[in-house]
Hints:
The N and C termini lie far apart (92 Å). The longest helix has 20 residues, at 3-22. This protein has helices spanning 3-22, 41-53, 127-132; strands at residues 25-28, 58-62, 66-68, 72-75, 82-86, 89-91, 104-112, 114-117, 121-123, 146-159, 162-164, 171-174, 177-182, 185-187, 198-201, 203-209, 212-214, 220-222, 226-232, 235-236, 242-247, 256-267, 273-277, 287-300, 304-307, 326-338, 342-347, 355-366, 369-370, 372-376, 381-383, 389-390. By secondary structure, the chain is mainly beta. It has a 32-stranded mixed β-sheet that branches. The protein has 3 helices and 32 strands. A hairpin with a 2-residue loop joins strand 28 (355-366) and strand 29 (369-370). The protein has one domain (2-130, 144-388): Single-stranded right-handed beta-helix, Pectin lyase-like (Pectate Lyase C-like), CATH 2.160.20.10. Residues 233, 235, 263 line the site of one 2-acetamido-2-deoxy-beta-D-glucopyranose (NAG). One of its GO terms (molecular function) is polygalacturonase activity. This is Polygalacturonase.
Amino acid sequence: MDMKLNIAIIAFVSFLYGFSTAQSWVLEISKFGGAPNADITQAFTNAWKKACESTTSAKIVIPHGTYKMGAVQVQGPCKAHIEVQVDGTIKAPVNPRNFKGAGTWVQFSYISFFTLSGKGVFDGVGETAWKRNDCSKNKHCTLLPMNFAFNYVNNSIVRDITSKDSKSFNVNVLGCNNFTFDGFKIVALALSPNTDGIHVGRSTDVKILNTNIGTGDDCVSLGDGIKNVLVRNVNCGPGHGVSVGSLGKYPDEKPVEGFYVKNCTLTNTDNGVRIKTWPSTPGTAPITDMHFEDIIMVNVKNPIIIDQEYCPWNQCSKKSPSKIKISKVSFKNIRGTSATPEGVILICSSGVPCDTVELNGVDLTFNGAPATAKCANVKPIVTGKAPTCVAPAA
Ligand SMILES: *[C@@H]1O[C@H](CO)[C@@H](O)[C@H](O)[C@H]1NC(C)=O
Ligand SMILES: *[C@@H]1O[C@H](CO)[C@@H](O)[C@H](O)[C@H]1NC(C)=O
Ligand SMILES: *[C@@H]1O[C@H](CO)[C@@H](O)[C@H](O)[C@H]1NC(C)=O
């Protein structure tokens, strides 16, 4: 065969091939009866079914416009990579009763290679529900639905998307491996109760990058069973800060290992970076390799805090110490302003004191004067600037 023709054929075939792999099969929500101002619950569920059966990668597109959607639970395993691109605003039902008992508004489970992307907003329309929420006082209160749950999802990414005014937690990540949030946004009022930003439990290799989180509770919180979570270039505030725990309540908890928080700014938050465990509880799973670096605190109430006597609303007895061992913790280059005189609180367990806690360049001020440090059952290794530890008043 003619050499030129040969090359032309190869080029043409690879052009076709590249075209078909780079492009995914696009499923517009309108093809499934979804239209602006309408309820797209059924349309979305049907589109997901089609996309998930596809043997080539498929993309569901929800374009600009405002939509309504009730609780949806979609799941894999799917046959190929699947993407949901949302550029519109999707609103949840106002009344929690209209979730038909679901604990989550939008739930994705048992999927691998999934992408949720777009400039769109998932609006939990939480305001009226928050006002009725009395869960801090009433044990039998109705639990409100979270905006998102990702359960057992691997190799996946949430890009850009905004989570707004969730009725409860914004995002719960459970049992996931290699899961990334990039350019994600969370917006809720500071007075919205229990609206944690992203809670991660029982997961490995989770990254939260370039994300802004403003909420009424923890910005990022870790439950038990964690391996390698990275939080980088994140702005947090308002909210309760970045939190490991609370841990220790249950006997079957798994270890928390590898948490890296880097280049973050916390503004007007109730805590900065915090590790908390309950006293007098059965949990023993250790917490190790927690590293906080290059963090700016702006008017933060407890910028650096390890609290192994965590016991809000006097729910527990402090008679016996926490059984959780905390080790290899570093606070490096942490600067800014504290909203209270004590910038550093390290209250470790008298039963299992903290091991290898490093303060390296901690420069916090309260009303222009250096903030102080209160420490118990820990001997921090100090390099560079850091406040001197004082034992708490007996
Ligand atoms: C996710 O990864 C875990 C651990 O490798 C595996 O057991 C599980 O089956 C995977 N789940 C999916 C949906 O691929
Ligand atoms: C992790 O997930 C990303 C996003 O889907 C994917 O591109 C990457 O290949 C995954 N890494 C591994 C080791 O599977
Ligand atoms: C730190 O984070 C901010 C955003 O919060 C970003 O603009 C900046 O580029 C980051 N710096 C580095 C060195 O990654």
